[in-house]
Amino acid sequence: MGSTLMKPVYVWEIPVRIFHWVNAACIVALCATGYLIGDPPALMSSQEAYQGYWFGTVRFLHFGTAYLFTFNLIYRIFWGFVGNKYARLAGFFPSTKEKLDELVCVVKLDILQMVCKPVESIGHNAMAALTYLVLFLVSFFQIATGFGLLSAMSGSVLSASFAWVPALLGGDMAARNLHHFTAWFFVLFAVVHVYLVCYHDYVEGRGVLSSIVGGWKFIVVKGGK
């Protein structure tokens, strides 16, 4: 009678795990402060406006977090060239027939709930990798529009580098609206991401959820008597 064994594989290195959690914290902070900036509540107070300055604090947290978000993304791109094979940027592109077939299979399993052979990718499956690639591109767009808008009131080198972006998009108001609407992509991504991670962790039992904390996943090894 055959038996099924699980073999541990070290997948996510410490730099990848650090990026993940810093990125998650930044997205939460940026979405929360960005929402307040876009639709600030009217707070009743007997203080003079200059004594409260709560909105200035919100803006400071948003801009400060934006710098951390930017440099964290640059750090992840760097690690995409020097990290292990599961961290490499090349893995985010479905450039082979095998990856394309896997992409179709994941769509059938996760979205259409159709019967398909199990997807046993050790790192990101093809759909997850493509989704993260889109996430990176959207992140760059948010960085460009965010610092472009900041350039009108900041003399920093980073913001000045994107001063041309609002004009390209049709002005500050257009850039602000695009920056705001695009932020909802992160909210949608977070909901789907958490659901699918928990789903695959439960269905596959290969440590998907815990791997982003400890770095280890498990692969099925069939054998025995």
UniProtKB/TrEMBL annotation:
Q: Name one GO cellular component term.
A: plasma membrane
Looking at the record's lineage, which domain of life comes first? Bacteria
Give the matching Pfam families.
Ni_hydr_CYTB
- SUPFAM superfamilies per the UniProt record, alphabetical: Transmembrane di-heme cytochromes
Domain Cytochrome b561 bacterial/Ni-hydrogenase, first and last residues per copy: 11-215
InterPro entries attached to this UniProt entry:
Cyt_b561_bac/Ni-Hgenase, Di-haem_cyt_TM, Hydrogenase_cytochrome, Ni-dep_Hydgase_cyt-B
Parts of the chain that traverse the membrane: 21-38, 58-78, 122-143, 149-169, 181-202
Keywords, A to Z, come to: Cell membrane, Electron transport, Heme, Iron, Membrane, Metal-binding, Transmembrane, Transmembrane helix, Transport
Q: Where in the cell is it found?
A: Cell membrane
MF terms from GO for this chain are: electron transfer activity; heme binding; iron ion binding
In the bilayer, the protein is annotated as: Multi-pass membrane protein
Q: Where do the coiled-coil regions begin and end?
A: none
Q: Does the keyword NADP apply?
A: no
Q: What is its main location?
A: membrane
Family listed: Belongs to the HupC/HyaC/HydC family.
The protein's name is Ni/Fe-hydrogenase, b-type cytochrome subunit
